[in-house]
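Journal club prep, shared notes

We agreed each person brings one worked example of a sequence with its structure written out as tokens. Mine is NAD(P)-binding domain-containing protein. I'm keeping it raw so we can talk through how to read the token line rather than staring at a rendered picture. Sequence first:
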Amino acid sequence: MIKNIPVNQVDCCEAPVQEKGKLPVAIIGAGPVGLAAAAQLISKGEPFMLFEAGDEVGANIRKWEHVRLFSPWQYNIDKAAKELLLSANWVAPQNEKIPTGKEIVEHYLKPLAALPELSPNVHLNTKVTAISRKGLSKVKTSGREKLPFVIHVEQNGSSFIYEARAVIDASGTWSNPNPLRSDGIFSEEEKALNSQISYGIPAVLGRERNRYSGKKVLVVGSGHSAINTLLELAQLQKEESGTEIVWAIRKANIEDVYGGRELDGLQARGELGTRIQKVVESGAVKGLTGFHIEELQKQGEQIQVTGTIKDEKVVIDHIDEIVGNTGSRPDLSMVREVRVLTDPSLDCVYELAPLIDPNVHSCGTVRPHGEKELRQPEKDFYIVGAKSYGRAPTFLMATGYEQVRSIVAALVGDMESAQKVELELPETGVCSLGANSKDSCCEPVQVEETSSSNCCSPSKTEKAGSNSCCG
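Then the structure, token by token:
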């Protein structure tokens, strides 16, 4: 059978003969940041191809579509994307409204991807499995910068190779949750209990209500995803008797979890801290601080969790369900044959580590950064978005938009624009610096736009909270 092979795509190892400079830029991931990269490339007249493993754009957002963001619409839309949409008579949502994840997908991402400038170049159900230089492993140096990248994909049950002159990896981290154990290892016991463990933001008051009603639920984690889960469980507890909530966090001081509250630059995010404080103080949630999980065991039809608090053994018995809100980590397997430099502790882009390391500081302002900081030893290869932050929990959507704007400027040779990085992020009202740190994360920066993807705001009818709302 003869296959009709699209331009820049080849079966197995047969590559078309084509000059690198005429090849498109490959984008991995059709979330907000990946689609923003596409919009930026279109604004510069540059060809691109976008690969999305899911069956629609924003596929990861669909997993938390019931969640409402912290920030209003005016801060959640990339500028280049907005210009494209408006030119196609798109009706922009009201600036002050705060969208849910579902609304982000349906009212922004899907209309953007459907534009004729984007649609032909968006490949859904296409999982990138590996990236390399054409004909060279990462060991070989001579001439590699002149060679195109080869993108190995699995597409609708078949394997293909695409060629690209540059790669922007915006695949995110949402699909790779961290384990419950404090040592960061997925034990066989945890894997075996997967039917009773949910990672992410369950729809406690929605489609998964029956799963948690009248159950003893352990929530593990101290970020906004955990707070969202707890607030919904507390509401469920009021409506369904017998619902018991236990909250395990590794932080020694629960006050650290509440955040800036009334001092937060995003009111909705600050309100989350205030609300969860009231819930804890009411006694609706049993909190265990400084708790480090060491073991999970089957206990009949339930689960027993063993850990330590200040070196003393603590056992939580008769757990029906566990919600793991311990963050996520990047999948770096696809870039094994690309020369990538990541921080050894955070798995983030190496140059970003001093700016975002949670061991050093915790605050809402991250210094502006762009192509220069995101540059890899492999020329024209970039990791952006939440994936660029690795395991750090502080990524914001506006950061990703500015990242790809700067990178695209560099790819088209406009280094002046690439180096002029401007970014404004809302203060959390909390800023702690390590004693030995010389970096001040709280210094004011000159900026153009504020946005957030790791924050969600509650309302009476909608869900709240996520610390990784944008892949």
